[in-house]
Amino acid sequence: MDTLLHVIVSLISLMVALAYGLTTGGVVRKIMARIQGRIGPPVYQPFIDLGKVLFLRTGTHHGVMFILGPVFRLAGAAGFYLLIPVIVGVPFLEGFHFSGDLLLVMYFMFFGSLGMALGAADGGHPHSPIGVGRGLAQMTAYELPFGLAVVAIVASSGSFSVFEIVEHQRAAMLTKGVLGWNLFQLPFASIAAFLALLGMNMYPPFNIVGAPTEIPVGPATEYNTAFQSLQMSGRAIFAIAKVVLFMNLFLGGAHSILEAFIKTFFIYMWSIFVGAVFPRFRPEQSIRFFLGWPTAAGVLAVALILWR
Q1: How many structural domains comprise the chain?
Q2: Can you give the pLDDT at residue 191?
Q3: Could you tell me the pTM of the whole model?
Q4: Residues 25, 35: Cα–Cα separation, whole Å
Q5: Rounded CA gap, 189 and 187, in Å?
Q6: Residue 66's pLDDT band (cuts 50, 70, 90)
Q7: Cβ pair 301, 148 in contact under 8 A
Q8: How far apart (Å, rounded) are the C-alpha atoms in residues 238 and 179?
Q9: DSSP assignments along 101-146, one per residue
Q10: Which residues lie below 8 Å from residue 122, measured CB to CB, with a gap of 6+?
Q11: What is the Cα–Cα distance from 158 to 83, expressed in whole angstroms?
């Protein structure tokens, strides 16, 4: 009975994450519009967009992988979110965590993106391979500093469990307060990871995949109707899952809904603040950036842990 209740609560939590992700996306569009001197769409516009495409159908088919791409995107986002704790101390909101779950979480982080790349490559638009090539190159580049940051965290906490990493920070907070967060305990790992997050979220200057005004067609055009609804849902859940993971890894997790909302909102806004003031990089500039200072910070973080 407890297992069934856990599953039900987890599905409700997943729907809440979807609503939160769509709302946050609407807020971001409004903020960017205001910065650019426009009124912008209403905050609830993503819900309208999702509703418009949810029940539409298309007669265009390119292959099995083209159909499975958005499914992989949504499945990867859902699996990612359901594995990590959202509210520590509330058993039904602590996710389906287990020893070593961080490794599976990292796999799910890239499962959806790789699925979308395979699906887009199976499409018929000539611009799709351009977006796929750019996306996989940038993903490989930001994986390096993020992976180094995770190595530093695991070496410091002695665990591959996200839940135990949160508990390790909570224990440090008993004597150090917020200085017990990994954000302050492992500053170079934090720098590497939060710079990598800019590439994960793909806001300017790292929105080289869709590249508005440059290659605005391809998967975004071919994946319409119900395919687009799966993409939008996966993107919204994935965005929230990422900031929840960063909250757990660097900000000591959350023990209440209000704490989770405040922490995740400010983590999400980090990418928006950067994107509001920087124009888009060229692909080679983006890759060079992630292989530069972020990777150096990650190497230094690992070196300091080993030196201890």
Answers
A1: 1
A2: 97
A3: 0.91
A4: 15
A5: 5
A6: confident
A7: yes
A8: 28
A9: HHHHHHHHHHHHHHHHHHHHHTSS-TTHHHHHHHHHHHHHHHHHHH
A10: 62, 63, 64, 65, 66, 69
A11: 19
